[in-house]
Amino acid sequence: MLRAALEARARMAAPPGNPGGYFRGTSRFWMGAIAVSIGYFAWAVFLPSTIPYENLGQLGHFTKYLVDSHPKLLYNGFWLAWGIHIAEALYSIKLCKTKGITDSSVQRRWFIQTFLFGIASLSHLLAYKPPPKKQG
Fold first, then answer.
1. Distances in whole angstroms, Cα of residue 56 to Cα of each of 7, 52, 92, 120
2. Nearest to 128 by CA among 108, 103, 101
3. Residue 97 CB neighbours (<10 A)
4. 76: which residues sit within 8 A by CB, 6+ positions away?
5. 90 membership: H or E segment, kind and range
6. Residues 6+ apart with CB under 8 A from 52
7. What is the mean pLDDT of the chain?
8. pLDDT digits (tens, 9 = 90+) for 102-113
9. Coil, helix or strand for 81?
10. Cβ-based burial of 78 (10 A; exposed 0-12, middle 13-18, buried ≥19)
């Protein structure tokens, strides 16, 4: 079902007359979910003493356990996540070129969006099917 939805969205073409300018924004749901998740991750890594663990239920207990027992894992995991986002963002530039998205401002938008929201952005670009090239 998810695949069918992604394929349907991928059929969205670039604006007529600008085949090199295809861009699709990430949904607000994923933007919010990823921003909150990365924000909480950063909070646990850099300011763990300010987290109200007891008010967060099971998430608080789990976070407290990780902070107390595995701080190095949290720290390395945080930077690994950002490293993955950087790799995805660089890959988005390559995909833009491969799929005929030649407008540099659109490529920059893909890069920034993918850097911030990772696979939630990159999945739209991966699913995009550029219009066939005219022969003749």
1. 38, 7, 36, 26
2. 101
3. 11
4. none
5. helix 71-98
6. 60
7. 90
8. 999 999 999 999
9. helix
10. middle
